[in-house]
């Protein structure tokens, strides 16, 4: 369970098989909307902006908000946020689903980044943005340290460690995971969500809030496919090695190659595909 309502809820189902039907108690993944309102100061005046509505798994919402703001380039570090809290004066059905984030006074950022439609559903992110020109990544290319090499054995071991720790998925089969590992294969953080992009935002935000260096000798594993936005978020966070159980898209591969990121897909216990950044794998 996670947060006030948890990642899963019980539900009575009718199971059909060749022997007939039977009633069973099952668990399903929770999906609820989260609205993030942003408060920021410009030229001595405070402004409030309805920034984001996303369909997510309740819990770890502060990680989600911080990771999203960081991945979008609105903040550059944890201390750019003055406070985060849930709004109290809301309708009963909105309780715990509306949160407000206040940035530090006079934070230097481009308010035009807020003039985009950030409504997203649980399977998508980029399609919630209104302008085609937002589908780009302005981050610098990632550095390469010739002394840093990750063994094939370590990469192959990541799936075994994920299976034993992905509690919500094991109960429901309906949650994605984003996991942070040391180069040695030791697991540091795991976040689950019904949305792939939310799981990664939660992981990035949790790393920032816990003071973990996301780009130094780290690997991030994603439980699903890799879209452009997933690579974009990872590059913006400085993540040099991105591994996925599923397939990458063409834009994801091109962006990873352009930004010197190691991108691995179709990870199995005995094989995987390297799409870019082979030099980091030994």
UniProtKB/TrEMBL annotation:
Positions that bind Mo-bis(molybdopterin guanine dinucleotide): 266-271
Active site as annotated: 124
Keywords: Cytoplasm, Molybdenum cofactor biosynthesis
Major subcellular location class: cytoplasm
Compartments in which it is found: Cytoplasm
Entry coiled-coil feature ranges: none
Pfam family, one: FdhD-NarQ
InterPro entries in the record: Cytidine_deaminase-like (IPR016193), FdhD (IPR003786)
Biological function: Required for formate dehydrogenase (FDH) activity. Acts as a sulfur carrier protein that transfers sulfur from IscS to the molybdenum cofactor prior to its insertion into FDH.
Similarity field: Belongs to the FdhD family.
Matching PANTHER family: FORMATE DEHYDROGENASE, SULFUR CARRIER PROTEIN FDHD
The protein's name: Sulfur carrier protein FdhD
Gene designation: fdhD
